[in-house]
Each structure stands twice: as structure tokens, then as C-alpha cells.
Write a structure and sequence with these properties.
The complex is a heterodimer of chains A (about 290) and B (about 290). Chain A has about 290 residues and is mostly helical. Chain A contains 14 helices and two strands; from the N terminus they run H-H-E-E-H-H-H-H-H-H-H-H-H-H-H-H. Chain A folds into two domains: about 55 residues, no CATH class; about 200 residues, MetI-like (MetI-like fold), CATH 1.10.3720.10. In chain A, about 65% of the residues lie in helices and about 0% in strands. In chain A, strands 1-2 form a two-stranded parallel sheet. In chain A, helix 7 packs antiparallel against helix 10. Chain B has one domain: MetI-like (MetI-like fold, Orthogonal Bundle), CATH 1.10.3720. Helix content of chain B is about 75%, strand content about 0%. The chains are: A mainly alpha (about 290), B mainly alpha (about 290). Chains A and B meet through helix 1, helix 4, helix 5, helix 6 and helix 7 of A and helix 1, helix 3, helix 4, helix 5 and helix 7 of B.
Chain lengths: ~290, ~290
């Protein structure tokens, strides 16, 4: 009876996934095959295939070339990937640590203006990066922070803190207060109650929050572009810089790099799929 | 635990708040100062120029054009994503074979980096070797120059945005649909209500609070549109220059920080108005949830 649903799902599913399949196919091609005006669709292991057909000979060259610096670039792709990993991981960690503490404070203590503070925190997410980046850049120049990993880590931590606080508050609010009260009766100090009761119970929440902070730092472009031109360049900025390259854009290499760059995110998406709704709505909707 | 926690509670919330103030309130105040000067990115002495920068904004047509481009982009992107996302959610509703796999795969595009995927879409939409135009050629259809035709550039950016963000609407719409109590449908069936009546009287009204939340979230996000514009046309294309792209052009290509700060304050004012609507709405939802629990 509900067969009509496939009339909607199948076409959209194809539209959504074909670009990603094409990404994979492109990463197996040579530059000539990738920018050929007759697209080939079927990878084969044959060496000699006449151009213009549906088949092409698959090669891992694009992946191998990622290890050597591209013309006009100081480093190879993996250098920038490493920057992304370091900056993403450390800023996610910092956001979760600060965010969990803050969320616990607002969840369990009476603090004057709690609602206003929470909405201030929320509102920081609305600011367009380009509208706040210049003062940050000026401030960073005083401390020699532009072009450093630390500079981006601090900025992403601040940027993701709103998400971390709101998500963690949702998770901590769900832990019954009776647990801590029992611990206090047993002679725990308030801080021990936090450390030994709340933290273990919010481990899932912290992991989920960390994943969302990591993804948003991983994908960020505006801040990274404005604050960096040399040392701490992340993958999105590196890729964008390959545009307008004199030798033509190396599409197979870009496809290979993009694939390596997005596969971890796709894996994380699957891992946190039960919490996606919470993550993208700042914990305002709970499933 | 309300006796000795005087200092402790500030120890919990303090660090995060100090961080946020340093990275948000300080830049805002500094922006206000800069907007009254002729500061340049290269440094050097900034002179006080009074309201001149603000005068420039109202004389310079670029700002008005960018505002319209952004507005058009936001309205079209959010509307199409809402309709498509809601339609998909309706189709995905109820149990069927492979549901969770299909749903999860559909959600992937919204988790990817817009800057990186935008660059990759240049490859797909390329007029000479792009796979989209090759497919259109095979079908014998007209092959538009997606990335170079001034009439189509904004549309191309829109398509990429829709590809990335329709799943977001779908996800929230699905949550809304799942929260509708089944007994309402049973009652409607007893009343022999038509499908259309059920949709209009039950499904839509009960979903609309969540859909509205999704629209607000997407709107605030789309207003910031920068990554895709940079990837597809660069910051200085008149047909696609959004507010953020204009800001980048003025500040990082033209080095005019004073003027850029004035621009960004006007944008911030817009965003703050919108954020207020948003926050009030969230507060009302939370108050409602609180009542339901109590």
C-alpha cells in the first residue's frame, strides 16, 4: 500500500549518493580520464583501454601523489590533514571539558541569571565568523597567534562552546539528582560527587558532544581562511587554495583527498546517528 | 548542596563564560571602535573618521545588492529544503525494510565540509567535462554553463546547499512525525477523514513547531553563507556575493578593516534581531516541555 514512498526515496537517494560514488570513481582515475569529455564509469584492472569507452583502468596514483607536495604548495596533503586532526581533536577536547563544567554548573546550582547566560551562550553561535574574525585577528597579533595551531584551537573551542554547553546541559539534566544527593550523604564533597557520579554517567553525552565539536571544527573554513596563510592551514583551506592552479586542478588527487577527509566524518555520523537530532538542534529536541 | 557551593559553582561555569566573553563580547566592542576608524589590515595608525564608514555603506550599492542576494538565497534555500525534507520525511515514515540504513546514508551530506564539497561540485558541474552536463547530453537535453553563466551561478550554489541541507530538514521533520500520537490518526480514520484532511488537520499542525525550529536554525545558518560562494565563484562575483563574501572582499582583499567593521556591525544587528526571535521561540518550547513533564 505504501509503495509510493519508493517513488520519492529512490530518486532522492540516487541524487544524494551519486555525487559521492562519482567522488570515489574519480579518485581512481588519471587526470586525463577525469577531465575527459566522455565520462567513463566502470573501473577495470586492464592496463590498455581505449579512451572514450565506459570502462577505464583504475589506478591508485591519485592516492600516492597525495604524499608529495603539489606544485606551488609547501607541504603534501597529509601535512594539512594532520593539522586538521590536531586542531579538531584538541579543540573538541577543550570544548567538552569547558562545556561539561559549565553545563553542570548551570544544571545543578542556583546561579543568578541562569537563563540569560544560557541564551547569551546560545546566541554566540549566530555570529557570522567573518563578522568577528578581524578583532580576533588583531587580538591574536598581540600574542603572536595568527598562523598557529593554538590560535585555531582556541577559536574553535570558543566557537563550539555554545554547542557543547547546550548539549551537555541536556545530558546532565537527565541524570537524577538523587545520585549526587546519595553521594553527598555518604560523605563525598560536591566536587567528588561531580567527578565520581556525574562524569561517568555523562560519558555517552561527552562522547557525542565531542564528535559534534570535532565535525564542526573539521569542516570549518571561514576562520581558518582568515587567520592562516602558512603554518596551520587545514584541509578545507588547502583544497580551496588549489583552485586556479596553473597546471589545472588535479581532480583525481582532490577526489582522493576529499574521500580521505570525509570518510571519518561519515563513520562518525553512523556512530552518533541516534543522537544526530540532538546534535543539530543544540539539544533542544530530545529523542 | 547549597551551602558551601558559593565558590565552586563559579569554578564550574566561570572558565567557559570567560572564554566566550573574550571571543565574542570583546570582538564586538572592538568592532564598534574599528568601524569609526580608517584602519587597514596591514596595520599602521588608524585615524578616527566619525560616521564616514556608515555613510559609505548607504552610498555603496554593493551592500544593498549583497543584502538582496543573501535574502534571496536564504528564502529559496530554506523553502526548497523544507518542502523536500518534509516530503522525504513523509516517505520515510513508518517501518520498512532497510529504513535505518537508508535514513543514515541520506543524512551524510549535511555532515560534510561545505568548502570541500563546494570545490568538488565545481568538478561535477563543470561545463566541459562535468558529469552533470555529460548526462544531460546523453539524454539530449540542454547543457547549461552552471558555473560561468551569470544567471545560473547563484542557482548552482543553491543546488549544492540544497543537496547538503535537505537531510537536516528531513531529520527534524521525521522527529516531528514520530511524535504524533497514533490515536489521532485512528480517530481521523473513524471519522472517515480524507487523506488530505488528515494531513492538513493532524500531520501538519502537529509537526509545525519542529518544522519552524528547523526553519529558524537553517535560516540563521544560511544567512552566514560563505563557504559555497567562495568555492564556486570566489568572493567578488556580483551575482553571488553574499554578505559574508562581501565582508571577506572588503576586509581581506581590499584591506579596509574600518569599513568592513561597519559592514559587519550592520550584519550583526540583523542577526541579533533574528536570534532574538529564535531564542524566544526556543524558550517557549522549553517552557511547554517543562509543563508536559510537570
Amino acid at each position: 500500500m505504501r509503495g509510493w514512498r519508493w517513488l520519492v526515496i529512490v530518486p532522492y537517494f540516487l541524487l544524494a549518493t551519486l555525487p559521492l560514488c562519482w567522488l570515489f570513481l574519480t579518485s581512481l582515475k588519471t587526470q586525463e580520464a577525469a577531465i575527459s569529455s566522455t565520462a567513463s564509469l566502470i573501473p577495470t584492472t586492464d592496463e590498455n583501454i581505449a579512451p572514450g569507452g565506459l570502462k577505464f583502468s583504475a589506478t591508485g596514483d591519485a592516492y600516492r601523489k597525495l604524499a608529495t607536495p603539489h606544485t606551488g604548495k609547501a607541504h603534501a596533503f597529509f601535512h594539512y590533514l594532520f593539522n586538521s586532526v590536531i586542531i579538531g581533536l584538541l579543540s573538541a577536547l577543550a570544548s567538552v571539558v569547558l562545556g561539561t563544567g559549565c553545563a553542570y554548573g548551570f544544571s545543578r546550582f542556583r546561579i543568578a541569571g541562569t537563563r540569560d547566560w544560557l541564551f547569551f551562550i546560545f546566541s554566540t553561535r549566530f555570529l557570522p565568523p567573518l563578522a568577528v574574525v578581524v578583532p580576533v585577528l588583531m587580538m591574536y597579533r598581540l600574542f603572536d597567534l595568527p598562523n598557529t595551531h593554538l590560535g585555531l584551537i582556541l577559536l574553535y573551542t570558543a566557537f563550539n562552546l555554545s554547542l557543547a554547553v547546550w548539549l551537555m546541559k541536556g545530558f546532565i539534566d537527565e541524570i537524577p539528582r538523587a545520585y549526587e544527593e546519595a553521594a553527598l550523604v555518604d560523605g563525598y564533597s560536591p566536587f567528588q560527587a561531580f567527578y565520581k557520579i556525574i562524569l561517568p554517567h555523562s560519558a555517552t553525552g561527552m562522547a557525542v558532544t565531542a564528535v559534534f565539536c570535532l565535525i564542526s571544527a573539521w569542516n570549518e573554513y571561514g576562520f581558518a581562511l582568515a587567520l592562516n596563510n602558512a603554518e596551520a592551514v587545514t584541509v578545507p583551506v588547502y583544497f580551496a587554495g588549489l583552485q586556479g592552479n596553473i597546471q589545472g586542478i588535479p581532480w583525481p588527487q582532490i577526489a582522493a583527498g576529499v574521500l580521505i577527509f570525509v570518510v571519518p566524518i561519515a563513520v562518525f555520523t553512523v556512530l552518533v546517528r541516534k543522537h544526530l537530532l540532538r546534535g543539530v538542534t543544540f539539544g533542544t529536541i530530545k529523542q | 548542596m547549597h551551602v558551601k557551593d558559593g565558590v565552586l559553582k563559579y569554578g564550574f561555569v566561570g572558565p567557559a563564560l570567560i572564554f566566550l566573553i573574550a571571543f565574542n563580547i570583546f570582538p564586538l566592542l572592538y568592532n564598534i571602535y574599528l568601524s569609526f576608524t580608517d584602519a587597514e589590515l596591514s596595520g599602521g595608525l588608524a585615524r578616527f573618521v566619525g560616521g564616514r564608514n556608515y555613510g559609505v555603506i548607504f552610498d555603496d550599492t554593493r551592500y544593498g545588492v549583497a543584502l538582496c542576494t543573501t535574502g534571496l538565497f536564504v528564502v529559496l534555500a530554506v523553502a526548497v529544503e523544507l518542502v523536500l525534507g518534509f516530503g522525504l520525511a513523509l516517505a520515510l515514515r513508518g517501518p520498512f525494510w532497510g529504513k535505518s540504513v537508508v535514513t543514515t546514508i541520506l543524512l551524510v551530506p549535511m555532515m560534510l565540509s561545505p568548502a570541500v564539497m563546494g570545490l568538488y561540485w565545481n568538478f561535477i558541474l563543470n561545463g566541459h567535462y562535468g558529469v552533470v552536463n555529460q548526462a544531460l547530453a546523453v539524454l539530449g537535453l540542454f547543457q547549461p554553463q552552471w558555473l560561468t553563466d551569470p544567471d545560473l551561478k547563484l542557482l548552482s550554489i543553491l543546488m549544492i546547499d540544497i543537496w547538503m541541507w535537505t537531510p537536516f530538514m528531513m531529520l527534524i521533520a521525521l522527529a516531528g512525525l514520530n511524535a504524533i500520537p497514533p490515536h489521532l490518526y485512528e480517530a481521523a480514520a473513524l471519522d472517515r477523514a480524507s487523506n488530505w484532511t488528515v494531513f492538513r488537520r493532524v500531520t501538519l499542525p502537529l509537526c509545525s513547531p519542529l518544522l519552524f525550529l528547523a526553519v529558524l536554525l537553517r535560516t540563521t545558518d544560511a544567512l552566514k553563507q560563505f563557504d559555497l560562494v567562495m568555492a564556486v565563484t570566489g568572493p567578488n562575483d556580483r551575482t553571488t556575493q553574499t554578505l559574508s563574501a562581501l565582508l571577506y572582499q572588503v576586509m581581506f582583499r581590499g584591506y579596509k578593516i574600518g569599513l568592513g567593521s561597519a559592514y559587519s556591525l550592520v550584519i550583526l544587528l540583523l542577526v541579533i534581531v533574528l536570534a532574538n526571535v529564535f531564542i524566544r521561540y526556543i524558550a517557549s518550547i522549553q517552557a511547554k516541555q517543562g509543563r508536559d513533564v510537570a
